[in-house]
Structures are given as structure tokens and as C-alpha cells.
Write a structure and sequence with these properties.
The protein is α/β, with parallel strands linked by helices. The protein has 11 helices and 10 strands.
């Protein structure tokens, strides 16, 4: 299927804080927020913003409330949008200001490369209102042997989210309304399948549901066209959730051999 070749001029980087939740990576690095963690001479947020701009995104907004993150975002020339009560509310606020098409990613996507963004846009089907980038387990394990990720296990293999989403049309607003529910169930794929109806749940139970069918079916249930896009590089699934992730990411960026930390404390 031909890709959209869509030109996207706006993107949102999620860098909000959860009240009462202390991020383990920020604590270990003695910074106020994970977005400020230094990765080979640059804060993580700066790396993400640079990748988006190199991909041709003209306007980058940051959803943030922590004062040091807000200050850094302004220093990087980004618009700051106060976060909502959760990711979906933050995306909704940005979508109301920036409109479609809009990319969404996260501040801890420190490995993000402009090429991955361009490939994602090129590979997203033209008819999609929403596209989601996912990496197959095989591609992740080839790119980073020993990495421990969370995978959705479906008929066409295991899939890991890449924290990169395309809200291609105004119809994507319907998807934002279900964002938080799906995110909450990302480690419980049977509950995601249940949202699609008994037929889809039965296909999942029988091991016959593919990722394309799951994403497409969810889209149909909320009245939009949603598509899964396979990442060309498995590293797109690697973000910084744990200190072991940070060590791997720093090693990759610095060009050093990556230590297998899959058995380290805190790995999932």
C-alpha cells in the first residue's frame, strides 16, 4: 500500500509530570525531570526536539509543567502547552492549538532520529486518520540484543510501541478520546481486544488476531481509519524508562558497545 508522503509541520513532545510520582531515572540522575537527563552532552528533550526539526517539523510544542523543563523548552524555541490530567488530555489540548496533521512523541525518546520520523510518514497509509509506529520483536532483538521490552503478542508476532503517533486528520480527535484507556491496557492486550467486540476477542483468544487487525478494528469502533506502521529500525522502540535503559541509550549514542542489562535490577 502506498504511503501518504504527508508533510507534517507540527509536533507535540509529552514531558509532563505525574503528581506524586517520582521518576526513577530522574532520581538516579539528580534532576527534577527525566527530560533534563544528560545523554552524551545534551538533555533528552533537546535530542528529541532536534530530531523532529531535522525531519522537517517546523513547529515543536512541549507539554510540560515542571519549571526547569518549561525553561529548557523555551530555550529550544518550543511553544509550551500546559499538560492535562493525563496524556490524552495533553494531546487534546495541543491538537486544539496545532491542528492536523500533528505528530506526537515523548521526551524520553532519546534515540529518536529524523530518518525514523521521515520513514514513518512515508510508510503511513494515505487513508489513515491515525497511524501508530510499532516495532516487531525480531527487529528490536536484531537492533539491540539483550534488550527487555514489553511486547503485545499477536498472531503476527510480538510488537512494541515506539512512542510515535500521527494524527493525520481532524477525525483523529475521536482517537484522542480513547487514548488514555488504550495506554492503560498496553500490557493487557486481551482488554484492548475486548474493546473491539466479541468477534475480535475470539480471534485474539485463538491466536489469530494480527496487529493490523487490532489497530484497524479499534479505529472502526470509534469511527476512524487507524493503521499500524512497522518501524524499519527496531531501535525506535527503545525509550528510557529505567536506569538500565539510560545506560544502553548512552552507549549507543556514544558509539560504545552496549552492555546487556537484561538481568539488572529494575529490568522488566
Amino acid at each position: 500500500m502506498a504511503g501518504s508522503g504527508l508533510t507534517v509541520r507540527a509536533a507535540l513532545v509529552l514531558a509532563g509530570s505525574r503528581p506524586g510520582v517520582l521518576d526513577p531515572v530522574a532520581l538516579a540522575e539528580h534532576v527534577a525531570h527525566k527530560a533534563l537527563v544528560d545523554v552524551v552532552g545534551q538533555p533528552m528533550l533537546a535530542r528529541v526536539v532536534a530530531a523532529l526539526r531535522q525531519a522537517g517539523v517546523e513547529k515543536v510544542a512541549v507539554s510540560a509543567d515542571q519549571p526547569e523543563v518549561v525553561a529548557l523548552a523555551h530555550l529550544l524555541g518550543c511553544e509550551v502547552i500546559p499538560p492535562g490530567a493525563g496524556p490524552s488530555a495533553s494531546v487534546a489540548a495541543a491538537f486544539a492549538l496545532l491542528g492536523a496533521p500533528m505528530l506526537v512523541t515523548t521526551a524520553d525518546h532519546a534515540l529518536l532520529e529524523a530518518e525514523w520520523v521521515r520513514d514513518f510518514l512515508a510508510d503511513s497509509p494515505a487513508e489513515a486518520d491515525v497511524a501508530v509506529l510499532l516495532a516487531s520483536r525480531a527487529s528490536v532483538e536484531i537492533a539491540l540484543p539483550g534488550s527487555r521490552r514489553t511486547y503485545l503478542k499477536l498472531a503476527d508476532g510480538g510488537w512494541s510501541g515506539c512512542n510515535l503517533f500521527l494524527l493525520a486528520t481532524t477525525r483523529a480527535e475521536a482517537a484522542i478520546m480513547t487514548w488514555s484507556a488504550v495506554e492503560a491496557d498496553r500490557k493487557r492486550p486481551w482488554r484492548i481486544a475486548a474493546r473491539l467486540g466479541i468477534g475480535t476477542l475470539w480471534r485474539y483468544a485463538l491466536g489469530r488476531l494480527t496487529m493490523d487487525e487490532a489497530i484497524g478494528g479499534l479505529g472502526r469502533r470509534i469511527g476512524i481509519t487507524a493503521r499500524a506502521v512497522a518501524a524499519r529500525n527496531g531501535l525506535a522502540a527503545v525509550d528510557v524508562d529505567k536506569t538500565s535503559d539510560l545506560a544502553q541509550v548512552r552507549g549507543l549514542i556514544a558509539g560504545r558497545p552496549v552492555k546487556d542489562t537484561s538481568s539488572a535490577p529494575g529490568s522488566s
